[in-house]
UniProtKB/TrEMBL annotation:
Region listing for Disordered, in residue ranges: 1-83, 101-187
Protein known as: Ubiquitin-specific protease family C19-related protein
Superkingdom to which the source organism belongs: Eukaryota
Listed Polar residues bias regions: 1-14, 132-148, 158-174
Annotated TM spans: 220-240, 246-265
InterPro entries: At1g16860-like (IPR040339)
Entry keyword annotation includes Transmembrane: yes
UniProt keyword annotations, A-Z: Membrane, Transmembrane, Transmembrane helix
Organism: Salix viminalis (Common osier)
Family annotation (PANTHER family): OSJNBA0035M09.9 PROTEIN, UBIQUITIN-SPECIFIC PROTEASE FAMILY C19-RELATED PROTEIN
Length: 485
C-alpha cells in the first residue's frame, strides 16, 4: 500500500505506520537448573561429577562447548556464544560451565555461520571483547567475555584445600611440580662437631684442663732443685777425683733418687689422689649454703637448653662429652703432635665440650643451675666409658671407627691408636664443686674466683694440687644405672 508516510509490518501480519522500532539490548538473564536427587552417588550429581573427571549418566547431563562431528546441513543458522564464570585451560575441560559457540559440521555442503553476541559493538559493528584478569589455556574463542581471574588446573588428586592452589613452581600443565631432595632454604648440612664449636653456649675444653703434675708444681722450686742437683753432682765428682772420697756423691745420688721417685709417683698417681680427695670432701646442703660459699654438691643431672651428643657412640642428651684419640710413636713412627716423644703415647685429636646443666641435690632435693657453659673454667674428672685399641697392622679396623676417622680427615696408615670416650648424660649421678650464687631466687653453682688447693697428702706422698674452675666428678656411667628424669 503506497503512502508517503512510512509504515512497516509486524510479526502478526498487521501494518502499522512509523518506522520499525530498533531492538533494545536485553540485560543478561541468569537461570538455574534444579539438581536432581543423587542419593549419595556422585555419578548422578551432574556437573559436580564432571569437575573431578568422574563419568556421569549421559541422559541427565548437558554437554557444552564446541560441538564436533555434527550432521551436515545446508543453509544458514545463527549461534550465540556466551561465557559465564572462569574459563578452564583446555577446550574440552570441565563441563561445569555452559558454552554454546560455533558449530562445525563434518559433512559436505556449504554452511554459512553467523554469530550473535550481546553487549556493546565497536565502530565496525563487531562485538567488543571484554576480559578481566589473566587468561590462559589452549583455546581462545572469539567474542568471549570473561570476568575474574582464571584459576589453574586442580591437582589430579581432586583434593580441595584452602589458600592458593600452588605456592611453588608449576609444570607445563599448570599443576604443582614435585621437587625431591633437600630444600634450598635449609642450606648445606654442617658437620655436627663444627656446629658445636661455634655455639656460644658450649665450652670447648682443651688438654690443658687435664691434671698435670708438672703444671701444678711451682716452676721456681723445680728449677732450683735442678740447679742444686747439678751443683751436687759436680762437687761430688770433683771430690771423688781429688780425694777419692765418694760420700758426697753417694748422698747426692740418694737425694736425687728420692726426689725423682716423688716426682714419678705424683705423675702416675696424682690424678687418682685428687679423685680420692673429691670423694672424701663432705657434701653440703644447698638449703643452708650461703652466698659465695665453696661447696660440693652430689645429685642427679638434668640437661639444660643445649644438650650434647657424644662423638663416637652418639649418646644423646649429654652435658659433658670427651672423645680423644692417641697414637703410639715407636722409633720410626710419625709423631701425633709437635711435642710427641718416641716410645710414648701422644694426643692426636681431642673433642671435649661442656654446657650448663641442672643438678638435683641429694641432701635437700633443691635444684641448682651449674654454670659450665659459655666458656666457663671447668676441670673434669670423668671416667672413660669406652676404650678402643686399634692396630691396623695386626687386625682390621671396624667400619664405625673408620667412618669416624674419615669424618675428621684422620688417616689410619699402620698407626697404633687408642680411642677414649667419656660422657655425663642426663640421669647420671655427679659431684660438683663450686661457689654458691643466689640471684633473684635462682640458685647457681659458678666457678670460684681463685683456684682451690688440695693440700699435701703426706700419708700418700702426694704434693699439693690446685683445682681451677668448677670441678666435675663422675664415675663410669656405663656401669651404673641411670636414674630417669
Amino acid at each position: 500500500m503506497g503512502s508517503r508516510f512510512p509504515s512497516h509490518q509486524l510479526s502478526n501480519g498487521l501494518y502499522v505506520s512509523g518506522r520499525p522500532e530498533q531492538p533494545k539490548e536485553r540485560a543478561p538473564t541468569m537461570s538455574s537448573v534444579a539438581m536432581p536427587y543423587t542419593g549419595g552417588d556422585i555419578k548422578k550429581s551432574g556437573e559436580l561429577g564432571k569437575m573431578f573427571d568422574i563419568p556421569v549418566d549421559g541422559s541427565k547431563s548437558r554437554k557444552s562447548g564446541p560441538i564436533t562431528g555434527a550432521p551436515s546441513r545446508t543453509g544458514s543458522f545463527g549461534g550465540a556464544a556466551s561465557h559465564s564464570g572462569p574459563i578452564m585451560h583446555n577446550a574440552a575441560a570441565r563441563a561445569a560451565y555452559t558454552t554454546s559457540g560455533v558449530v562445525s559440521s563434518g559433512g559436505a555442503g556449504s554452511v554459512s555461520l553467523k554469530k550473535s553476541n550481546s553487549g556493546p559493538l565497536n565502530k565496525h559493528g563487531e562485538p567488543v571483547k571484554k576480559s578481566s584478569g589473566p587468561q590462559s589455556g589452549g583455546v581462545t574463542p572469539s567474542g568471549r567475555q570473561n570476568s575474574g581471574p582464571i584459576p589453574p588446573v586442580l591437582p589430579t588428586t581432586g583434593l580441595i584445600t584452602s589458600g592458593p592452589i600452588s605456592s611453588g613452581p608449576l609444570n607445563s600443565s599448570g599443576a604443582p611440580r614435585k621437587v625431591s631432595g633437600p630444600l634450598e632454604s635449609m642450606g648445606s648440612m654442617k658437620n655436627p662437631a663444627s656446629a658445636v664449636i661455634h655455639n656460644q653456649a658450649v665450652t670447648v675444653l682443651s688438654q690443658d684442663d687435664d691434671f698435670s703434675f708438672r703444671k701444678n708444681f711451682p716452676k721456681l722450686i723445680l728449677w732450683s732443685l735442678i740447679l742444686l742437683f747439678v751443683m751436687g753432682f759436680i762437687a761430688g765428682g770433683f771430690i771423688l777425683g781429688a780425694v777419692h772420697n765418694a760420700i758426697l756423691l753417694i748422698v747426692v745420688v740418694v737425694l736425687f733418687g728420692a726426689v725423682a721417685s716423688f716426682f714419678i709417683w705424683n705423675t702416675c698417681f696424682g690424678r687418682r689422689a685428687i679423685m680420692a680427695y673429691i670423694a672424701r670432701y663432705p657434701d653440703a646442703e644447698l638449703r643452708n649454703a650461703k652466698n659465695g660459699q665453696f661447696v660440693k654438691i652430689s645429685g642427679v643431672v638434668t640437661c639444660g637448653n643445649v644438650p650434647l651428643e657424644s662423638s663416637f657412640q652418639r649418646v644423646a642428651r649429654c652435658v659433658y662429652t670427651s672423645t680423644s684419640l692417641y697414637e703410639y710413636r715407636g722409633w720410626d713412627s710419625k709423631a701425633a703432635n709437635a711435642t710427641h716423644r718416641r716410645f710414648s703415647w701422644g694426643l692426636r685429636s681431642l673433642e671435649r665440650h661442656a654446657v650448663d646443666f641442672y643438678i638435683s641435690d641429694f641432701q635437700s632435693g633443691l635444684r641448682a643451675l651449674v654454670k659450665t657453659g659459655y666458656g666457663a673454667r671447668v676441670t673434669p674428672y670423668v671416667d672413660d666409658s669406652l676404650v678402643i685399641d686399634a692396630n691396623p697392622g695386626a687386625e682390621e679396623l671396624s667400619p664405625d671407627f673408620l667412618k669416624w676417622l674419615g669424618e675428621r680427615n684422620l688417616s689410619s696408615d699402620d698407626r697404633i691408636m687408642r680411642m677414649k670416650e667419656g660422657y655425663i648424660k642426663e640421669g647420671s649421678t655427679v659431684s660438683v664443686m663450686g661457689v654458691v650464687q643466689r640471684n633473684d631466687n635462682v640458685l647457681m653453682i659458678v666457678p670460684p674466683p681463685e683456684p682451690i688447693t688440695t693440700g699435701c697428702q703426706w700419708a700418700k706422698c702426694i704434693f699439693p694440687a690446685s683445682l681451677e674452675g668448677i670441678v666435675l666428678r663422675c664415675e663410669d656411667t656405663s656401669k651404673n644405672d641411670v636414674i630417669p628424669v
